[in-house]
Amino acid sequence: MKPNTTSKQLVLQTSLALWLLVAAATGAEQTSLRLTLPPTWYGVPGVPISLYYDNIVLTEKPESYRFEVTCDIGRSEAKRWTVTPTDKDVGQHAFGVVVKSAQGKELQRAKTMLRIAPKDAGVNRNLRLLIVGDSLTHATIYPNEIGRLLSEPGNPKWTMLGTHKPASVKPGVAHEGYGGWTWAAFLTRYDAKLDHKLDEKGRRLSSPFLFPGADGKPALDIPRYFRENCAGQPPDVMTVLLGINDCFGASPDNAKTMDAHIAGTLDTAEKFLKAFRAAAPRTVFAIGLTTPPNSRESGFEANYKGKYHRWGWKRIQHRLVEQMLKRFAGREREGIHLVPTELNLDPVDGYPDNNGVHPNATGYQQIGASFYCWLKWWLQAKQQ
């Protein structure tokens, strides 16, 4: 029996509705993934580096997608692309990522450039390095790793600046990293009673860059910081790894307020960099892209007992990286560089089971390797 006209229309309408639903779902899937890569990332012969797929897309289930990498070096594995470059790999390598559904449908693609610096980049040069950050820096593991790598043959004669020298540091390692600190804290935090002394728990309550003025009120005085703590000489490079404490409390469920929160944080970062630039016109700033979370919800439950969740921070962190790329990418002529510390951090094996945002030793070492590889490329470019 042939359907009547009304039945035909109903079938067509139903088919159209189904098609629109599939198209909308596919579009939402493509949009929600938000594949994000920095313009460039870095490597050095002998130093393992990886791009972890979970860190470049916005999804709770990266295992549901297929990631295809195009690069003339390295290899793809289940959860990452990885390489330990050799001397013959020195140079630039085009790098592309295609994300597909489990059925093989292409959803998104993006590209970047992998730059491999020679092992002897900057050999015997003098390098003054200031490392600034929050609790990830306070732990001192990744500054130690930078120091270890810089101590290998073929490297510059390095000096780390900073007033924070915990007992766990390797010889010569120093930094300005403090648990719970933000971009704003380095501009404004000051305790007149303690000045620059530590409290009874060993915490710093005053920014190392703030000093009381003639009126007794604290003011940013970076030249004085250089005079009193750096033998009067500013750093050649200042690395900064901040953003977790600045944005952790943003609302991931309201895109408008989240973007406003992040924009305010980056405005503060600009003020901080501007103040340093005025005091140190030749210092180069290497800003680490805020690191991704532990892939396990159990890490967040151990820390926050249900108040904050992994997926909430993942959404904030991913948006923060997107906005940092928009704000700071392409400003190398201003002496502002981005270091993709978010790519080379294993969100599974680089974290303990019981912490949401603080890596284990493996993860911290991966952060240190990312900064080191950028430093070597910068040293090479400086030689040319």
Ordered list of secondary-structure elements with their pairings:
Blueprint: H1 5-33, E1 40-43, E2 49-52, E3 66-70, E4 75-76, E5 80-83, E6 91-100, E7 106-116, E8 126-133, H2 135-138, H3 141-150, E9 157-161, E10 176-177, H4 183-188, E11 210-212, E12 218-220, H5 222-229, E13 237-241, H6 244-247, H7 255-279, E14 284-288, H8 297-304, H9 310-328, E15 336-339, H10 361-383
Parallel strand pairs: 1-7, 8-9, 8-10, 8-13, 13-14, 14-15
Antiparallel strand pairs: 2-5, 3-6, 4-5, 6-7, 11-12
Helix pairs in contact: 3-10, 7-9
- In CATH terms, the superfamily of the largest domain is SGNH hydrolase
Query: From the alpha-carbon coordinates, what is the Rg to the nearest angstrom?
Result: 23 Å
| Average pLDDT rating | 91
Shape descriptor reads globular
The domain count comes to: 2
Which CATH first-tier class of the largest domain would you pick? Alpha Beta
Strand coverage percent: 15-25%
Separate helix tally: 10
H/E order of the elements? HEEEEEEEEHHEEHEEHEHHEHHEH
What is the CATH architecture term of the largest domain? 3-Layer(aba) Sandwich
Structural features, described:
The chain has helices spanning 5-33, 135-138, 141-150, 183-188, 222-229, 244-247, 255-279, 297-304, 310-328, 361-383; strands spanning 40-43, 49-52, 66-70, 75-76, 80-83, 91-100, 106-116, 126-133, 157-161, 176-177, 210-212, 218-220, 237-241, 284-288, 336-339. Strand 4 and strand 5 form a beta hairpin. Helix 3 (141-150) crosses helix 10 (361-383) and helix 7 (255-279) packs across helix 9. Residues 1-30 have low confidence and may be disordered. Strands 8, 9, 10, 13, 14 and 15 form a six-stranded parallel sheet that branches. It is 35% helix and 20% strand. The longest helix is centred in the N-terminal third of the chain and has 29 residues, at 5-33. It has ten helices and 15 strands. By secondary structure, the chain is α/β, with parallel strands linked by helices. It folds into two domains: 40-116, Sandwich (Immunoglobulin-like), CATH 2.60.40.10; 126-383, SGNH hydrolase (Rossmann fold, 3-Layer(aba) Sandwich), CATH 3.40.50.1110.
